[in-house]
Amino acid sequence: MHSRIHPLSAEATSTTSRYGPIWSLKARLRWVSRFRQLLVREEQKLAKLLDEEIGKPYYEFLTGEMLPLLAACRWHERHAYRLIRPQRLRGKAIWQFGQQHTTQRSPLGHVAIIATWNYPVQLLGIQLIQSIVGGNTVTVKPSERAPRTQQYLLALAEQAEVPNGVLHWTDSSRDAGELMLRSRHFDHIIFTGSTEVGRQIAAYAAQRMITTTLELSGRDSAFVLDDANPELAAEAIWTAVTMNAGQTCMAPRRVLVQSGIYSRFLDAIAPLVSSSKPVCVIDDASACRVWDLANDAVARGARSISGVIEQPRGRMLHPIAMVDCPPDALLVAGDHFGPALSVVPVRSLEDAVAIHSECDQHLATSIFSKNPHRVRELTERLNSSNITVNDCILPVAHPAASIGGSGGSGWGMSQGQEGLLALTRPLHLSVTSTWLRPSMQLPSPGGLALLRRIARWLYGGFAIKPATPRTRPVSGALNHPPVATSTGVAITSSTLTSPSTRSSKP
Question: Fold for domain 220-399?
Answer without folding.
Answer: Aldehyde Dehydrogenase; Chain A, domain 2 (3.40.309)
